[in-house]
Design brief:
This protein is mainly beta and 298 residues long. It has 3 helices and 23 strands. Bound molecules: 6-O-phosphono-beta-D-tagatofuranose (TA6). 6-O-phosphono-beta-D-tagatofuranose binds next to strand 20 and strand 21.
Length: 298
């Protein structure tokens, strides 16, 4: 398998396929601008680091790399629903594609960096979660910025409705010395305690657990990672909702795949199709969810 991938999709000195944690296959990219690792389990970006900068993406040191389980940290791909399934609580949280092995469709060295496209093929195992023919591609471009595009094409004869997300975990030096701008004046559903609707005032500061769905927003978010003296900018298209999450101490202590104090160095800023931000696709229609992540020094 590795030999086949390296022959078909490897790019000399830039992209190679290796076996890593849990025996999973990883695409390893190291070009003139940045390095990145992407696990084929979930088409899951586990690291991205422009040269000369701190890691942009946070990965839990206790993440399980195991079949049927999502990697903790990185950029989990949630599809075709975000969070709890709308009608069946027995279905997996955040859809089923982050727990499955994807294949590589193509790779090339492009203008914006190294491009690699993954595909998840429907199979007997996916039918129990999504009973339609489907076509879902993830295109990742690793360069001075990281670009992620999730392209859904309705290849069935029926009208389908999809949600999803890039459940991105960002690496910050100290969550209490981090703020987030871009959501001032936006209404959110606060999922901590009984759900309630609140309007955001100013930037977000982090002093306790946060689990919020910001509604009707296509705004760019900027993480002010003051401890690393940098900003992480997340621009998006095809998304009208943004989820912000940090579990904080008590929830973190109850999670088997996070170290007890690891919440201190992470923040999820998620490019989502959540709540009512769903896409209804007629046969042959496509939906493109995309995010561009760029860092800059303060
Ligand atoms: O995106 C926020 C959230 O939905 C939280 O409610 C929290 O549960 C988190 O995702 C992690 O979910 P997971 O299924 O990966 O454990």
């Amino acid at each position: 398998m590795l030999d086949r991938y390296n022959e078909a999709f490897g790019i000399h000195g830039v992209l190679k396929f290796t076996e890593g944690e849990g025996g999973f296959t990883f695409a390893e990219i190291n070009n003139g601008q940045a390095q990145a690792r992407i696990c084929l389990h979930g088409a899951h970006i586990v690291s991205y680091q422009p040269h000369g900068t701190e890691p942009v993406i946070w990965l839990s040191k206790k993440s399980l790399f195991a079949k049927g389980t999502a990697i903790r940290g990185g950029i989990p791909i949630c599809w075709p629903w975000f969070g709890v399934h709308p009608s069946d609580t027995a279905m997996p949280n955040h859809g089923f594609v982050r727990n499955r092995n994807w294949s590589v469709l193509s790779s090339q060295q492009g203008e914006g960096g190294t491009e690699i496209t993954f595909i998840l093929e429907p199979s007997g195992a996916t039918n129990k979660f999504w009973d339609f023919p489907f076509q879902v591609h993830l295109k990742v471009t690793v360069g001075a910025s990281l670009k992620i595009e999730l392209i859904t094409k309705n290849v069935s004869d029926e009208i389908i409705t999809v949600g999803g997300a890039f459940h991105s975990y960002f690496n910050v030096k100290d969550i209490e010395n981090t703020t987030l701008s871009g959501l001032d004046g936006t209404t959110y559903i606060d999922e901590v305690g009984p759900p309630s609707e609140v309007v955001q005032k100013g930037d977000l500061c982090f002093k306790k657990n946060v689990d919020r769905v910001y509604l009707k927003t296509s705004s760019t978010c900027v993480i002010n990672d003051l401890g690393h003296n940098r900003q992480i900018c997340i621009q998006k298209t095809g998304s009208q909702s943004t989820v912000i999450w940090n579990p904080w101490d008590k929830i973190c202590q109850g999670m088997k795949d996070m170290a007890p104090d690891s919440f201190k160095t992470m923040l999820c800023v998620e490019t989502t199709n959540a709540c009512d931000d769903l896409y209804t696709l007629a046969p042959n229609e496509t939906h493109n969810l995309s995010a561009v992540i760029t860092t800059s020094k303060n």
